[in-house]
Design a protein that fits this description.
about 290 residues, alpha/beta, TIM Barrel, two-stranded antiparallel sheet, 12 helices, binds coenzyme A, binds magnesium ion
Length: about 290
């Protein structure tokens, strides 16, 4: 059975380049669940150190309200994460993202660095949340060991662009070339009680395309989607929130189920279609999301 996840619900997660204080400052006004201060691919190689200082400064001085604040590190093999964590942890981001996660060792290495930072700061071990990006062929092959590597892991983020590069696929808007991996990530997340966040939609002028891709991700079971531009977050939030009609239908279905249980029927007809336990479980999930 998939493990139920009752952690903080995130629908939209917006990347912003860690070396742009201007962009980070604007985030405090937007309808976004999570801001991602990026130190990895959104930052040029020769600005990595500057970005680290800017991110620390942003965490220290800006009020993000209820928005979750995550820092995306570089991969542990670059040797950068020890300094990235050292510079930023004291300003208490909610957590960190480790990119291009390939195996359990990658996760354990970051986990150890976070634990050391927690001990240094005198905060509870496990306080910093962790998220892993799955965006290489190896990461997809090792999903199970990654998902179970550390209890501080809260979610998996699917990265389609890097994955396509890694496997030699050509990206298309239909995204069939990454469908296997996209589906594997959301399945592994459900199996191990993690949240799953869908790939970025790079054409930030195409609102209709973003909405279509977001709805499909939700159909697959994704709980949210990463964004690259502020004009994407409201569309994503809407797509990942149940509509009033969906909530109403789910409530009616659950009510009908409870009546049928009393009458002793497992399967029954609801609005012309057969309903049994799996549909009731799905309806309860809709209702759970509705109260978040
Ligand atoms: N975070 C915060 N602010 C952003 C933003 C983001 N991700 N993307 C755009 N903005 C701001 C811009 O600074 C601009 O502000 P202004 O009106 O005060 O000048 C406003 O929103 C409108 O932006 P726009 O002119 O439409 O886009 P742009 O040309 O400035 O930026 C990108 C386009 C793609 C460079 C930008 O959206 C971006 O940096 N995205 C994130 C990239 C990233 O982090 N990639 C790595 C993860 S995949
Ligand atoms: Mg990437």
């Amino acid at each position: 059975m998939a493990v139920q996840n009752t952690r903080f619900a995130r629908r939209s997660l917006l990347f912003m380049p860690g070396d742009s204080m201007k962009k980070i400052q604007k985030a405090s006004n937007w309808e976004v669940d999570t801001v991602i201060l990026d130190l990895e691919d959104g930052v040029a190689q020769n600005r990595k150190v500057e970005a680290r200082t800017t991110v620390a400064e942003a965490l220290r001085t800006l009020d993000f309200g209820a928005r979750e604040r995550l820092v995306r590190l570089n991969h542990v093999n670059t040797g950068l994460p020890p300094d990235e964590i050292e510079t930023t942890a004291g300003w208490r981001p909610d957590g960190y993202i480790t990119p291009k996660a390939e195996d359990e060792a990658d996760l354990r290495a970051v986990d150890r660095l976070l634990e050391m930072a927690e001990q240094r700061l005198g905060v509870e071990v496990g306080a910093f949340r962790l998220f892993a990006m799955i965006e290489t062929a190896r990461g997809v092959m090792n999903l199970k060991e990654i998902a179970r590597a550390t209890p501080r892991l809260e979610g998996l983020i699917f990265g389609a662009e890097d994955l396509a590069g890694d496997i030699g696929a050509v990206r298309t808007s239909a995204a069939w070339e990454v469908f296997y991996a996209r589906s594997a990530v959301v399945t592994a997340a459900a199996a191990y009680g993690l949240q799953a966040f869908d790939m970025v939609f790079t054409d930030f002028h195409d609102a209709v395309g973003l909405e279509t891709e977001s709805r499909f991700a939700r159909q697959l079971g994704y709980t949210g989607k990463t964004c690259i531009h502020p004009n994407q977050t409201a569309i994503v939030n809407r797509a990942f929130s149940p509509t009033p009609e969906e909530i109403d239908r789910a409530q009616r279905l659950v009510n009908a189920f409870e009546e049928q249980q009393v009458a002793g029927a497992g399967a029954f007809t609801f609005e012309g279609k057969m309903v049994d336990m799996p549909m009731v479980v799905a309806a309860r999930k809709v209702l759970a999301r509705a109260v978040l």
